[in-house]
């Protein structure tokens, strides 16, 4: 991944996301997904600016089949923002940079 976004798994989801004291943006993605690949550089760019505010993680839905159904993930990319262990907001599909920033900012407060 990168220094700003790291991969998580079904096994680490509870610790990395639910128990996090910082809001967490989870990118549910797959290697074969074109829109997921298009979203990746935008997430990387945004993650650098939100270092102290939001933790960014990616969960490969093919390698981790247990977690996505728990949160109703049926299509990818799906972004879910968690705050205090709870789902704060969900966004399905490819976003542009402005939409991504708006999605995060509107749900942080």
Give the SSE map.
Blueprint: E1 5-8, H1 10-18, E2 24-29, H2 34-49, E3 55-60, H3 67-70, E4 78-83, E5 86-92, H4 97-108
Parallel strand pairs: 1-3, 2-3
Antiparallel strand pairs: 2-4, 4-5
Strand content: 25-35%
Oligomer: single chain
Name of the CATH class = Alpha Beta
| Total domains | 1
Order of helices and strands: EHEHEHEEH
Whole-number mean pLDDT = 96
Structural class category? alpha/beta
Shape: globular
| Helicity level | 25-40%
Note the main sheet: 5 strands, mixed
Sheet with the most strands: spatial strand order: 1-3-2-4-5
Note down, in words, how this protein is organized.
It comes from Aquicella lusitana. Keywords: Disulfide bond, Electron transport, Redox-active center, Transport. This is Thioredoxin. This protein has four helices and five strands. With 109 residues, it is α/β, with parallel strands linked by helices. It has a single domain, classed as Glutaredoxin (3-Layer(aba) Sandwich), CATH 3.40.30. It has a five-stranded mixed sheet. A hairpin with a 2-residue loop joins strand 4 and strand 5. The protein is globular. The termini are far apart. The mean pLDDT is 96.
